[in-house]
Every structure is written in structure tokens, then in C-alpha cells.
Amino acid sequence: MTQVDSHTFFTGEHVILEPLTLEHVPALCLAAADGNLWELWYTTVPHPDDMKAYVDKALDQEARGESLAFVVRDKTSGEIIGSTRICNWDQANRRLEIGYTWYAKRAQRTSVNTETKLIILNYAFSTLDVMAVEFRTHWHNQASRQAIMRLGAKQDGVLRNHKLLKNGTVRDTVVYSIIDSEWPTVEQHLKHRLAHYQQ
Questions:
Q1: Domains and CATH numbers, the chain
Q2: Residue 193, CB half-sphere, CA atoms under 13 Å: how many?
Q3: CA-to-CA dists, residue 79 to 17, 55, 83, 181, angstroms
Q4: Chain centroid to CA 182: how far?
Q5: Contact criterion met (CB below 8 Å) for 45 and 35
Q6: Which of 78, 93, 116, 123 is the most buried (most CB within 10 A)?
Q7: pLDDT score of 116 more than 70
Q8: Is 23 helix (H, G, I), strand (E, B) or coil?
Q9: Cα–Cα dist 42/23, whole Å
Q10: Which of 102, 82, 116, 142 is nearest to 199 (CA)?
């Protein structure tokens, strides 16, 4: 069984992926406040009052070897601008999900998401040797769905009535994936987008 390294840092041209710790809670609160992201009913960005519990849960999953959580730091400014996570890692079937991804409003539709996903996808396929990387989002989260498709992921299907949300609504979850045979082409696509700033 492959062990998740909870101390792994990744550095790109625009971002640094830094292992999530409780010390990041104040900075994550500031990032979420840029755009009041918790007010978007179809996302799971925590309110600042709930950020510590959000981080505690992520660290608990990490301790069980089920996930690997990061904060996303802007390499130029040094500011924490969001969070992302490897999660639902099914080692027996060599499959994992990239999820819990959100960014401060100022970082959305920039090079940030493209490079963050390029880094994690490369780690997943090259180091963790997975066969598939999955992405899931709310049916009504059009921005997220478009961002996932821009990565080169293909839609697998829709899980209807998949989750009960805190606000009482029911979430239909759209599932996308990139499989190992597609990764070389997707990797070139993402590198091209980064080089030409096509975000």
C-alpha cells in the first residue's frame, strides 16, 4: 500500500501547494472572505466560523491515509488563495478524486487552477500510479463544471439525489474523470494553456 506523504510541498511557476495545517485557518478565512464564497449555496466553502472544523476534518482524513490536503499559496505575493485536496483514494482500484477545491475570487479564472491541477494530476499519475482521477461537483455549479472540462476531463455521469446539503436542498453530483491513457495528452494541453495564459 502506498503511503500518503503529508509533508509534501509542490512548487510551480505561479503557485505553491503547501500541506494544510491548523496554522492556515486565519489565512483561509481571509481567502474565503474574498467573494464571500460560503454564500454560494452550491459550493462547500466553509464560513470563517466553521473553518477550523473544516481543517480538523481534512487532517483527520489525512491521518487515516484517505486524503492529502493542501493550501494554495500565490508564489508572487505569498498569500494563501485557496485550498485543494486529494481525497477518496481507493488504492485497491488505483483511483482517487481531486476535490474540496476553492479559490479566493481574485484567483479565479487565472493560471492558478490550471497549474494546481497540473501539479496534482502529475503526482497522481506519475507517483501514486493511479488509473483514474475523478472530479465531482454540483449540477448547478456551472463555473466549476466549465473549469473541470477546460482541464480535459470527460463527464462520466450524474449521481441524482446524491447528497443532502445543510440548507435542506438535494445535490445532483456531476462526475468527471481523466484516465491514465488520456493523461499524456491532457498534460500537454495544460502545459500549453499555462504557456499561453489561456485561462
A1: 10-195 (3.40.630.30)
A2: 22
A3: 12, 18, 12, 36
A4: 19
A5: no
A6: 116
A7: yes
A8: helix
A9: 27
A10: 116
DSSP codes, 127-161: IS--SEEEEEEETT-HHHHHHHHHHT-EEEEEEEE
Write the DSSP symbol of residue 102. E
Q: Among 77, 75, 83, which Cα is nearest to 28's?
A: 83
What is the spatial distance between Cα 87 and Cα 198, in angstroms, rounded to a whole number? 28
Express each pLDDT in 54-107 by its tens digit. 999 999 999 988 889 999 999 999 999 999 999 999 989 999 999 999 999 999
**Which residue shows C-alpha cell 466549476?**
144
Q: Which position has the grid cell 482541464?
A: 151
What phi and psi values does residue 168 have, to the nearest 5 degrees?
95, -5
The contacts of residue 67 (CB under 8 Å, 6+ apart) are 4, 58, 61, 85, 86, 87, 88, 89
What does the alpha-carbon distance between residue 98 and residue 147 come to, in Å, rounded to a whole number? 13
> Can you tell me the distance from the alpha carbon of 48 to that of 175, in angstroms, rounded to the nearest whole number?
28
Cα 79 to Cα 190: distance, rounded to the nearest angstrom: 24
Q: What is the pTM of this model?
A: 0.90
pLDDT greater than 80 at residue 198: no
pLDDT tens, residue by residue, 17-46: 999 999 999 999 999 999 888 887 667 789
